[in-house]
# Entry
Amino acid sequence: MAEQRTRGGKAAAEATEADGQARITRPELIAHLNEDLAREYQAIIAYIVYSQVLKGAQYMSIAAELEKHAHQELAHALVISKQIDYLGGMPTVSPKPVKTSEKADDMLRFDLDNENETVAQYRQRVRECEALGEYAMAEHIREILKQEQEHQIDLATALGKDVSEVTRPEQRA
# Structure
């Protein structure tokens, strides 16, 4: 593992633009991935809680779907943790704050807002990984991104929103 962490030396430590300007460093990528990991922890907690407290016949199928999402988010957290370790960092142990509400629609809206942020951040992370030449890592994140977009669509649909409304280009930061 130590060989992997030091391979490429300084050349791999920083990506550069054609004009020689630095885009991102490995330590910056580690910090960004730790933010992603904190969002995954947040999603795990939110999906567990929301899936159990949503009440009413109209929410039974979405509650079951949220339970599945919780398992997927745990798998994402494991992948992101592995990537942080590979880069020589220490995975964070703190989640982002989780919002709760007595109202089911509020909880689903909180989830959708979080998924929108997650999708935007993972799109950026793919670009950062590729800038550093970490193409395999970018592929791992693309796989996570596909599932996060499915979560985004599921939540938008549950809220009766037009899916294109939440996946428009402005959301693709």
The longest helix spans residues 26-53. The mean pLDDT is 87. The helical segments are 2-6, 9-13, 26-53, 60-86, 104-131, 135-158, 163-166.
